[in-house]
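Task: fold both queries, return tokens.
Query 1:
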Amino acid sequence: MDISHRRTKSDMISSMPARRYSTREARAAYVDRRLEELYPNPAIPLDHRDAYTLLVAVVLSAQCTDKRVNLTTPALFALADTPEKMAQVPVAKILEIIRPCGLSPQKSRAISELSRLIVERHGGKVPATFEELEALPGVGHKTASVVMSQAFGQPAFPVDTHIFRLAHRWRLSNGKSVEQTERDLKKLFPTERWNALHLRIIYYGREHCTARGCDGTICEICRHLRG
């Protein structure tokens, strides 16, 4: 008998994961299931008290670590933790406090101006729509998405550097932009999963599938999806 075409049991087993996760949908289902096991109740990594303090913290987090933001905001919020109070603080004073977060001149002006506009346009309440949030200084789509999902419980899928990297490593998206990656992920995962899932991916990207610590073959999920 010609045994050149015979396959051993180990051959068949080793080939199964590749077939099992040959589609984006299959990979997405596994990622969703495994991340929920690892992070059943993911906490918002930015310390905050309400929608306004979350908004300010997210603005500060641009090109800055959450750890640094959390070290900076207690002093800022001790000075002013409402739009009304912040609008009365000189920009120079805000700048002095938030300097460690980087991009402090732009961020201090944005925090001062968005606080003033929230008071003038929205009665001191953080607006709860994407359109109104993105009209505020320093608030782009990602910042608005975080606030909408984590402060107001509206479905959103903010894509940061961790999510962008992992979405490509796990072959969930081949989008060249954050916008396309967000669209791809929203198609793959049920709407009711978005808010927790984006946090789970961030935590996994920080703790396991880091930019330098994993090249797409080392962490558990990367190994599993490769077969």
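Query 1 returned. Query 2:
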Amino acid sequence: MMKRTFCMHATTAVAAALALGIATVVVAQPRFGNPSPTAGSETSQRANDSADQAVYRPVEYMNASRKGPALIVIPGEIKSNNATFLQKFTANNIADFAEVELSAANFQVLERSNLGPVLREFELAYNLGDPQAARKFLGMGKLKSTKYVVKFDILKTEQVASAQQGFDGRAIGNIAGALGAFSGSWGGARAGAVGQAAVGSVQTGESTGVWIIGMRYKIINAETTEQLAQGYTEEKMEVGAKSSSVLGVSQSQQGGVSLDTMVQRLVQKSVWEIDSKYK
């Protein structure tokens, strides 16, 4: 009887261990290697420290535990004339970010793909405030449950400030060489030549640019096409670079938050406000 009880306990322990092992495998985050030939070097460390500031970070939405109403995100408008921004972004990119964040905030986000080829007509119905045309599309499938239509517009993308500074040692090096030459001694001339080479090799440079990007969101009643709420938020984006060179040894570094990251952060701020005020 004791032997049988022992075997049962052992079997239970093994099963628990296996279950724990399986749970660990399922829960564990995937890990990836770094094939870069400079991995672990000083330049790699500096570059990664800078990139860590721009990596995606999920937001803890205050009402995420409460299920939000059904909504659909339609592509907004990009009203900036900045060529760099327009080359990189479309309104669909911003709507994709918005769908991700609204889902994270526990809103019932309906797929724009459900509208298929009539998506553009659907957008026009809401942008023109035509409730009759809008309701015609809302009668289709899953869209019947839509309560809100949400759009995100980029209103501003502009570089508002820039600054540069640097040091070029060649002028001072030339002065040191001239003073050595006029010293009248061989030692002074030699020291002047060494000073000219050393000081003249020193070159440093630093530049910084600051952008301001502004986003507006609108919440529209899906039934009446009336605007229920809107909000606006701005963020600064700083891009910088610096370099130095001394006696042939040079180093440089550049970085900053990218336009992708800036747009996603603006969407997160907007969704946080929608979640806290209009759920």
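Both queries returned. Flag for query 2: The longest helix spans residues 2-27.
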